[in-house]
Every structure is written in C-alpha cells, then in structure tokens.
Write a structure and sequence with these properties.
With about 200 residues, the protein is mainly beta. The chain has one helix spanning about 5-15; strands spanning about 40-50, 60-70, 75-85, 90-110, 115-130, 145-165, 170-185, 185-200. It is about 5% helix and about 60% strand. The protein has an eight-stranded antiparallel barrel with strand order 1-2-3-4-5-6-7-8.
C-alpha cells in the first residue's frame, strides 16, 4: 500500500507534465506556465473539512466538487460528502453529511487569480449511526445495540473563494466560510473549507 501512493502521485505528475521534450531537449519552455484558457465553465474537486451538520462537536472530513459558469457573476452546483465519528461513555456516533447546493456568486479577476464570494442554498442529507459502547460484550442486539437514521436539513453556505491559474487550463482553488443547517427547528452554525484543483476548458 505504501508503494502505491507514490506511484499514483508520479503518474498524475507525468500526466500533467508536457507530453514531449522540445527540440532543444528541454521539457520546460517560457510558455509552459502560460494560461491557455479563460473559459466560462470551471470544474473543480478537492478535499473538504469542517464541522458536522448536526453533531455539536467533532471534525468532518471528505471530498467535494462542483461546476461553475460565468466570470463576474457566477452560477453553479456543488456536492460534497464527509464523515465524522465521536464517542461518549454510552455511544459511538458516526455521521455522514452529503451536502447538495445550488450556488450563485460574484468574482473579481486579477491577473492569474480571482477572488470571489459564493452563496449556496440547498440541503444536507445526514446519516447517523449509533453503536452502544461495549454493547456486543454485554450481549445486546437490535436497537439496544445500534441505531441508524437519515434526515434532510435545509442549509445555507457563504464562502470566500480564491483561485489561481497554475498552468494551461489548471487552477489551484481554496474556499471556506460559515454554513447554517436547520436542525430540529433551530439553526446549527458551522463552517466548511475546501482545497482542490480546477479545470477551466
């Protein structure tokens, strides 16, 4: 397993590198890092971290991505999946959050980079599973041992977004900000952040 990760990393770097050496034998030229695309569509994905939608404590980690259209004013859709596990003397609780958002925002382009503000509206599908601590040792079964439930929570996100063109159509993107989920009739404030890469054809 340890040898697989470096091998995959090398394959990704080779795929993103120039495909052939230039006539003078060098792999990099003066225009290697030029921006070759400023299209209206942007597709991104990366690692997500934040607070769980319903748990009062803990840190949720996972993956996310989205598609955006526009430059000064943007619209798009995003999705992410993350999970967190916390323990108490009585229970071990695992929550998985599937965040689905329709987004709109504004951005300012400056040179190779851009800064923006993104508003997301949608829902968070929460799956919670509880396992009673030492329950199997005590011989418990059924609902006395474990429970599972789903809930869809209305949600709102406000995120700051920063992106920079690295080379060609590829960008490095970072975003983050507060998020609000409506849980059991009241708002549950949290935050979310994402670090990833984007492709702008």
């Amino acid at each position: 397993m340890r040898s697989v990760v470096p091998s995959l990393a090398c394959l990704v770097l080779l795929a993103l590198a120039p495909r052939a050496a230039r006539a003078d034998g060098t792999l990099l030229s003066d225009d290697t890092w030029n921006v070759t695309s400023c299209g209206c569509w942007t597709i991104d994905g990366g690692l997500v971290v934040g607070f769980p939608a319903a748990l009062p404590t803990g840190l949720t980690r996972g993956i996310g991505g989205g598609v955006t259209y526009g430059h000064r004013f943007t619209a798009g859709a995003r999705a992410s999946w993350s999970t967190a596990t916390e323990s108490t003397p009585a229970w071990q609780v695992t929550q998985s959050d599937l965040r689905l958002r329709v987004t709109g925002g504004v951005e300012h382009i400056a040179g190779r980079g851009s800064l923006g503000l993104r508003l997301g509206l949608g829902g968070t599908l929460v799956h919670e599973s509880r396992l009673r601590s030492q329950g199997m040792r005590a011989g418990l079964t059924g609902d006395a041992l474990s429970t599972s439930a789903f809930a869809m929570l209305p949600a709102l996100d406000i995120e700051a977004v920063a992106a920079v063109h690295v080379f060609g159509p590829w960008l490095l993107v970072i975003s983050g900000g507060p998020t609000l989920d409506v849980f059991e009739g009241s708002g549950h404030g949290a935050w979310t952040a994402e670090l990833g890469v984007a492709w702008q054809p």
